[in-house]
Amino acid sequence: MNLIVKESYDELSRYVAGEIAALLRGNPQAVLCLPTGNTPVGTYQELVRLHKEGRVSFAQCTVFNLDEYYPIDPSDPNSYRSFMRKNLFDHVDIRPGSANIPNGEAKDADEECRLYEQKIRNSGGIDLALLGIGRNGHIGFNEPDRELLLETHVVTLTESTLQANCEPFGSIEAMPKQALTMGLGTIMSAKRIIVIASGASKKFAVEKMLSSRITTDVPATLLQLHPDVTLVIDKAVGVSSEGTRWTR
Ligand code: GLP
Fold it and tell me: Are 135 and 37 in contact (CB under 8 A)?
């Protein structure tokens, strides 16, 4: 695993967007896994800027988003489908059929997860997974637990995640209590992984990721087993690369 510490959030965003744009230039048909949350917003803004300047195209690529609330109407402003449209999909040339997100209003959630997993496999697999990280170390919506599931599945959100994510819904009562998420196995099957973290609230999760220990209590620690992971953080996280064996 490589650790890159950037001076600021803007620098982090520019760097990560540059990596994605370079991948798409080299392999226009790449399959990407993308996250939601506040952290990737700057990266998406930068990708939109690069696209408007003609420096990156999404026309041939395929995206699989990590997760979606359940149940939720995809057109609900708080759905991850709406988030991705607002922040990226509506501003670049991705084909609508290539922008995949689990369907939050599927009648049979387990069947939706099975189909999503199959679609990822049929696409030839993920070339690059960009991941955010929850304060408790969750990845996608793989929450801390005694056991984790490998494939896309239904998950019940923890109290800590409900609290961290409830603001746009107005209250915890008003938000969906479940989600559909790629499993750690699906995520770990990506050829390359970039994890982004910004700000002091991510210090716990980042420190655990760099700890040389793995535990399902902090799902992000499992990423240490992947052969090509880069963790890109800003200084505000409060973790320095000195003294770790991950420096680059
Ligand atoms: C949500 C998403 C995660 C994301 C996390 C952190 O729970 N399911 O994929 O990494 O939020 O979000 P933020 O970047 O806003 O801290």
Answer: no
pLDDT (0 to 100) of residue 241: 79
Nearest to 130 by CA among 211, 53, 19: 19
The contacts of residue 111 (CB under 8 Å, 6+ apart) are none
CATH code: domain 7-194 is: 3.40.50.1360
Average pLDDT on 230-240 reads 96
- For residue 37 and ligand 1, the question of a CB distance below 6 A is answered with yes
Asked whether the predicted pLDDT for residue 242 surpasses 90, the reply is no
Give Cα 113 to chain centroid, integer Å.
17
User: Pick from 221, 202, 211: which is nearest to 5 by CA?
Assistant: 202
Q: Is the CB of 141 under 6 A from ligand 1?
A: yes
Three-state secondary structure call for residue 16 = helix
Going from N- to C-terminal start, the domains of the chain cover 7-194
Active site residue 51: no
CA angle centred on 9, ends 7 and 93, rounded to 5°? 130
pLDDT tens digits for range 26-46: 999 999 999 999 999 999 999
pLDDT tens digits, 182-220:
999 999 999 999 999 999 999 999 999 999 999 999 999
CA of 141 to the centre of ligand 1 (A): 8
Tokens of 111: 């069947």
